[in-house]
Amino acid sequence: MALYAELHRHLGGSVVPRILWRYLQRNDSDLAQRFPAYPEFEDFYTRPRSTLDEYLELHTLVESVQTAEALPYFIYRLVRGAYIFENLAYLELRYTPFLRTPDHLTQSQRIDLMAEIVAIVGKASQLNEYPIVTSQILCMHSRLPYAVNRAIVDLAAQSREYVCAIDVAGGDNHYGERLDEFVELYAYARSLGLKTTGHLYETRDGAYPELLPYLMRIGHGIQIPLEHPHLLKEVAERGQCLEVCPTTYLQTGTLDDISQLKLVFDRCFDAGVDIAICTDNAGLHNVRLPFEYENLLTHNIIDFEQLQACQDAAFRHAFAWPYQQRPASLLNGLLKVESDRDSANAYEIAQR
């Protein structure tokens, strides 16, 4: 029975290393020649990096492979693994559609092709054999010009069948010089009725309080409880949820030890700020969502009651979850109905 919700997973970082390596081998890529044996590729692909910028360079590797033709191949395996190995009932995939278009085309041609990419991802994600509720978050990007980012917002508004929200990505230390642009774009998105999240307060250089009022969720946001706890009150008042991705902070050098997350969870729980536990880049980390849960428990970062609170928060803050309850509650209801029916049948038999 699928039980969990994943709110922060990048399409570029979601491909597990062995599937990516097999694809590269079959398609005779330069990387396949560089890494003819799998163990060397896995080490290269999943080892920790020194900085967030160095870590994000791995996304460019996968983005170049995730073409319109290849996306169904990757998404089928992604959804299959999420259902079978992670027990996911709900999955939001985020990515920048412009970066899945051919880079030899003009900017306007690539913008025109973005709708096709969104449709391919949307259709490929709908698999009857693996019934997960899926939706897309389209990411603006710090490396892309204003016109492209504006087109991404417009595309999100025009593609509500597949898209539930927008985001900004590309490293939160790179927004500063263009902060007014992103404030304008988020205000524009909200005027169109779009839901919003954003990569903010992941690193110490990613503090942009000007963007916070436009967000419904905060991508990462761990530096708020760590370095800016005075903001927790207004985060709670807005009903914003932090999308915390534990393994990421060790992979990017943002934190030295997972134990540092205890303060994040403790301060958020004390302030009434919701946290959804996420994977971010399950492929780059070679981890799955249940591992993130287990790791936090075994390191005494949270207890089981707090874990359940985070799991509940994930469904409550999911942008496209169509039900009022999470799957565990729905299952309990079904089991109670079945139990009541069995009791009624037993009573009827006893009265004969």
TrEMBL record:
TM spans (from-to): none
Cofactor: Zn(2+)
CDD domains: ADA_AMPD
Keyword list, A-Z: Hydrolase, Metal-binding, Zinc
InterPro entries found in the cross-reference section: A_deaminase_dom, Ado/ade_deaminase, Metal_Hydrolase
Superkingdom of the organism of origin: Bacteria
UniProt EC number: 3.5.4.4
Keyword Zinc: yes
Keyword Hydrolase: yes
Enzymatic class: hydrolase
GO biological process, one term: hypoxanthine salvage
Annotated Adenosine deaminase domain residues: 5-320
Similarity field: Belongs to the metallo-dependent hydrolases superfamily. Adenosine and AMP deaminases family.
Protein name as annotated: adenosine deaminase
Organism: Stenomitos frigidus ULC18
